[in-house]
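Deliverable D4.2, example record:
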Amino acid sequence: MKKWIIFSTVFLVSLSLVISILVLWKADAPFNEMEEKAEQLALVTKSLAIVSDSYTYNGNKPYVTVFGVDEYGKEKAIFVPITLEENAIQEVFLQDGITEEQALAVLHDEATVKKILHTKLGYEEQGAVWEITYLNNTDQLNYVYILFEDGQWWKRILNL
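Output generated by the structure prediction step:
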């Protein structure tokens, strides 16, 4: 009887683990597919010669931000709308704005940050922005947006 209880417990834990991994893998698949298509579009349109990274940014309009270098070796970020419209692609040279570290320094100068959850470069009506999500010292969720061009605050959503 004891062996059956041990076997059942191990079987159920293993089954739960496998199902959890499958769900997480399947849930991430549409994002991976969209990022792959955006990377290919950035290469086909010759916006980038080499792709180094990409991720999805969900602002007012969802974009895939693709990082890489152009044919002259300059680092760029390409913002590809999820509709994959070539004429709606936006781009910035990374040397023309603030870095992620500088955006975080702007945040740390004015806010008490307990933990940074993520930092993403995205595209809004004002242009490229750094979206920083963090927890403050009372564990409240905060979103701040800092303009890529000059490091000025654009929008803050605090204490959620």
